[in-house]
Amino acid sequence: MTGTRRSIALLFLLPTLVLLGALVVYPIGYSLVRSFFDQSGNSFIGFDNYETLFTRADTKAAINNNIFWVVLAPTVATVLGLIFAVLTERIRWGTAFKLVVFMPMAISMLAAGIIFRLVYDQDPEKGAVNAVWVGIHDTFAESSAFPKAHPRPNAPLAGKSGGPYLTKDPVKAGGNVLLPLVGVAADQMPDGAKPAKQATSAPNKVTGTVWQDFTLGKGAGGINNVDSTELGYPGMKIEAVKGGKVVASTSAAADGTFTLPASADGSRLRLPASNFEEAYNGVDWLGDKKFFTIHLGGFDLYLNIVTTSIMVAYIWMWAGFAMVLIGAGLAGIPRELLEAARVDGATEWQVFRRVTVPLLAPVLAVVLVTLMINVLKIFDLIFIIAPGATQDDANVLALQLYRSAFNENNEGLASAIAVLLLLLVIPVMWFNMRRLRREVRR
């Protein structure tokens, strides 16, 4: 076209061709050939590495997780980017909002992984997510103040560890019942606890005391006797059970004393298990619990909580990228089309669904395809966020490639994984190139 001789054109293209061959063609070819050899690279084993790839537990888990990564993460990030771009288009502080949403893109995957490893910490005093989750839970379901409490071996109470505990003998109206417990550390006693005292007997009523029957040194009252140096169990629930039914119930005062009506006469007193429940410690966001499992022949497709949690970290980073690209596409939409739709009586939802989204389809495709390619090579977030105990459950192909090559020294299997990743990327790239050519023709 320019009249340049072919030899001169090839001369100028030679450096590029050399780099392309050295950095792209040769590694792909070498990986393909190496995938047909064993771990040492000396013996040709055919497709054995590919068979291992689809039959070994860790590689199957990696394929399973990659399926959900490719389907869910790009879709959710694209949808959030679309929502943010559309909703912030007309507000004055939209630019500031977009800046905040886009800011995580400036953070490296390593730094983001460290941040979310701390965010998902199981301890509510360290992990922000569990701090909020436990706060919400305790608002509606207050945890027990006595999770470690239990009767002494010779106490008049019996029951399995963790409750419920029942008195060994029925109680009588006008009597005074002593319910001694131990096991709560002094620094963990409720702030409202007061020195325990013996309840005053009352006619036609059952009275008693439930308290911490332990004091450093020798207490004045001794074992199974109320000692003024010991503390009551405020709020401890006591139930009177007769014939398998609860006939009366009450809660202990700050000094551990309680009173039950005459209907409790002849019943056995029970300390319900709710008194001894462990404090709610939140959710193990980086655990291996499965949300659901789909059985597909000999392959089980499942989504677990650790993979979902890491996806949230990825979406936090890449939703801003999607928002910026979609926002640029939104700015290029002719306003006349939107106004014409509104004049014709379309609601804002109809304008969004039938005008805005179809016009943004090319941009949405670019964002979706880019993120799909990106998640196929996701590695850093999983390597950093997933703890060692559940890293196998959060495994993906890129991480498995690294582990096979450097932890197992199995370059054959690692090369097979690399070839599989290449094969997974090719259809996405083909779709993207076809779409670009179609747009050029238009």
Structure description:
- The chain is α+β, with helices and mostly antiparallel strands.
- The protein has two domains: 194 residues, MetI-like (MetI-like fold, Orthogonal Bundle); 127 residues, no CATH class.
- It is built from twelve helices and eleven strands.
- A hairpin with a 2-residue loop joins β10 and β11.
Summarize the structure.
The chain has helices at 6-34, 48-55, 57-87, 94-102, 109-119, 128-140, 305-331, 335-343, 348-376, 380-385, 397-407, 411-441, and strands spanning 150-151, 157-158, 165-167, 176-182, 206-212, 237-242, 245-251, 257-260, 268-271, 290-296, 299-304.
- Structural shape: elongated
Biggest β-sheet: count, sense, barrel? Answer: 5 strands, antiparallel
Q: N-to-C terminal Cα separation, in Å?
A: 23 Å
Number of helices: 12
* Structural category: alpha+beta
Give Rg in angstroms. 34 Å
Spatial sequence of strands, sheet with the most strands? 2-3-9-6-7
User: How many beta-strand runs?
Assistant: 11
Uncertain runs are none
Number of domains: 2
CATH topology of the largest domain: MetI-like fold
- Supply the CATH architecture of the largest domain: Orthogonal Bundle
Question: Topology, please?
Answer:
Elements: H1 6-34, H2 48-55, H3 57-87, H4 94-102, H5 109-119, H6 128-140, E1 150-151, E2 157-158, E3 165-167, E4 176-182, E5 206-212, E6 237-242, E7 245-251, E8 257-260, E9 268-271, E10 290-296, E11 299-304, H7 305-331, H8 335-343, H9 348-376, H10 380-385, H11 397-407, H12 411-441
Parallel strand pairs: 4-5
Antiparallel strand pairs: 1-4, 2-3, 3-9, 5-8, 6-7, 6-9, 10-11
Helix pairs in contact: 1-12, 2-3, 2-12, 3-7, 3-9, 3-11, 4-7, 7-9, 8-9, 9-12, 11-12
